[in-house]
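Attaching the record inline, Q. Sequence:
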Amino acid sequence: MTIALADTLIARAQAQTGLSDFGPQGWRQGLGELVTVMRSRDFGDVANARIEDRLTAVLASRLQIEDWIASHPQVLDEDITAPLFILGMPRTGTTALQAFLANDPQWRYLRGWEAAQPVPPPNPAPQASHPPPLAQPTPQQESRGHGQKVQIN
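Structure, as predicted:
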């Protein structure tokens, strides 16, 4: 089994969502090239199925985003001033910094569910008013000394 053709993946996403407007068409060439490269190798049936599912899910998200924007065109008029991006190598504290900043109400952070499913819920206000607490160490981490309070003079 090889990965399905791009047109097949597109049709699956449309069938899943009942939507057909992908918005500006600049993405099709990239999808075509990706699928061509992926089809040149056989990753095995299980991996191929997972790749197809992921590509279909991304296409479905794009359809849902375009539909949401069409239903809420006012979002295109919103100003986003001075966005803050946290970038860094693995294990350098970027997640801790993000969690720290997320506790300050002046910052709007990307929630895990938003990254996985970027279409807003019917009422995003409750999520916006409840920032997550800073991560607490697990009992295993505490036994290894993680999460100990340090007094700074």
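The mean pLDDT is 84. The CA atoms of residues 3 and 39 lie 5 Å apart.

More tomorrow.
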